[in-house]
Amino acid sequence: MKDKNSLIGWLLIGLVFVGFMVYNNYTAKDRAERQQQAQAEAKVEQAKQDSIAEAVAMEEMKKAESESNDSTNALFAARQGQPGETVIENNLLRLTVTNKGGQLMRAELKDETYKNQQGGRVVLFDGDDSNLRLIFEGKEDNVLSDDYYFSPKEVTEKSVVLTLPVADGSIDISYSLDDDSYILNMDVQAQGLQGFFPAKANTMGIVWTERMRQQEKGYSFENRYSTITYRDTNGSTNELSASGSDEEEDASDYESKLEWVAFKTQFFSQILIAEGNFSVDRMESKQIPEEKEEGATKYLKTYTAELNSKFDPTGKNPTNLKLYIGPNRFSTLKENEAKIDGGSDLDLQSIVYLGWPVIRWINRFVFLYLFDWMTGWGLNMGLVLLIITLIVKFAVFPLMRKSYLSSANMRVLRPKIDEINAKYPNKEDAMLKQQEVMQLYSQYGVSPMGGCLPMVIQMPIWIALFNFIPNAIELRGQSFLWADDLSTYDDVINWGFNIWGIGDHLSLFCVLWCLSTVANTWISMRQQQAMAVSPEQEQSMKMMRWMSYIMPLVFFFSFNSYSSGLNYYYFVSGLITILMMWYLRKTTDDNKLLERLEARYKERKANPKKTSSMMERMQAMAAQQQEMLKKQQEAQQHRK
User: Fold this and answer.
1) From CA 132, how far away is CA 105, in angstroms rounded?
2) How far is residue 273's CA from residue 126's CA, in Å, rounded to a whole number?
3) Which residue from 75, 328, 389, 589 has the least number of CB within 10 angstroms?
4) Angle between helices 453-468 and 397-412 (to 10 degrees)
5) What is the pLDDT of residues 225-277, one digit of tens each?
6) CB-based contacts of 64: which residues, under 8 Å, 6+ apart?
């Protein structure tokens, strides 16, 4: 029984094993068949994908080949075009237009009046110094002009039209010059592109970038007057900061649209003018570190202006732009503005900085006309500055004489002031002493402010010429005595390496001006020492004397790199002032002056009401202060 059961068990195990083997073989076969089927399907799918990819590649190849050979849609070919240059010129400008981007590549001034530091023609930009990108936004693609090569056509001596095939039409940029003009006419027009642009398209973008070349000898001085200047439709001319770098990113920084944008250096500019005004996205000025390498092209700053101008995609109305390329000469800017249709209100000459409003009026209506009148004589610019200085000094001589006589009156009254000082030796009597001094001044008709007011009145003239001379392009390249160029510093000594605070040179006109300032200070200090002042005033004036002697040293460090014409003017002005002070001192008799004051004193004593309102106010203030001091002293004694 036991053996029978064992036999059945082994048979069952064998059946299970055989069944498992049969099942396993069937499963493996089925898996293999499915795997083979999957592999076959994968091969079919791969072949299908390869076929599709090959078809797409063939289509792309055919499309690229079609684009390169299709003359009606040649953007692909335009991107692969060949560089070329076209020169247009008149009697003032020679401009090179490049096929790449259809833009200006080089601007050269032909007027022999303006030369570079080597004596050749002034080149404002060349090669990759400048880039003017036009951006056209299409329905599907955007066209960036500087990505493509344009084709020149209709070329004449003074004009050229450059065309860029786009879709079934083209974008044309035409340039033209007129005789005796620094204005370049630039028209942008679409031809047959109604379907390329969106229905509401009416603007094109402009990204204008330029590295501004250093044209003058003095890097730091030229930088002071180099910046982006712009004029808005409200009639206001503004500028980015000329010191260091500056940027305005937010369009809200501009209160209205702009009529023009100028990339300006000290004596030359390019002014982009829009017939229909610009809207602004961003403007930026970045200073470029000074380059010391001899012979290399040197730069001041990099300017960028991102603008938007009107654009008619139908091509009926071209976009009219103007580009002034020339000198920052007030009369030249005004003459060229008059040649622009509707340009009488552009005020291009406002890029010549003449100072704050009041100062600008003095320069605009006095010194500008005076300077232009005398330059017409054909005189050396050093003599012109000398004559202007003489005219200015003699014009203000009456004020100077009044100031001197006021100081002389104080001088001859010194013995009487000394008596009052001796009468009140104690500090607590200072108010009584001041009150009595004011009464004395009133009785003799002398005002302590009489010597200051005439000098204050002269300050606007001093500031006006400070702004006028560095911006006078007529001084550029003009030599006088040892100065080779009156528009920049006269480095009679140049040691070739930089010293902090001084630079690499010594300007002789600056040194002479500082010495004349010291001499004038010494004369003024001697005059003040002889004036009638209190011991307290004498003490405070000692510090002022020291400051007056230190100022010429400060002037030297500040003006050593300024234009020699400006330092020459200040030197001559100071020298004439010394001569005038000497003349006034020689022609003023202190005894006769005292006699007149005594006569005035008797007259006023007989008629007490005949006193100046200013002296009355000063006396009243002194009496009020004395009364307040008296009350304070009484209060202190009461507390004790």
Assistant:
1) 10
2) 21
3) 589
4) 150
5) 999 999 998 888 999 988 777 666 555 555 578 999 999 999 999 999 998 88
6) 76
Distance CA 147, CA 126 (A): 19
Residue 363 CA to residue 345 CA, distance in Å, equals 20
Provide the 10 A C-beta neighbour count for residue 637: 8
For the chain, which residues make up each domain, given as ranges? 1-69, 75-353, 365-622
Backbone angles phi, psi at 583, to 5 degrees: -65, -45
pLDDT tens for 299-330 read 999 999 999 999 999 889 999 999 999 999 99
> Three-state secondary structure along 232-288?
ECCCCEEECCCCCCEEECCHHHCCCCEEEEEEECCCEEEEEEEEEEEEEEEEEEEEC
- Which single residue is written with the structure tokens 């070919």? 77
Show the 3-state SS of 572-637. Answer: HHHHHHHHHHHHHHHHCCHHHHHHHHHHHHHHHHHCCCCCCHHHHHHHHHHHHHHHHHHHHHHHHH
pTM over 0.85? The answer is no
75-353, what's its fold?
Answer: Beta-galactosidase; Chain A, domain 5 (2.70.98)
| CA 420 from centre of chain | 57
Residue 420: predicted pLDDT: 78
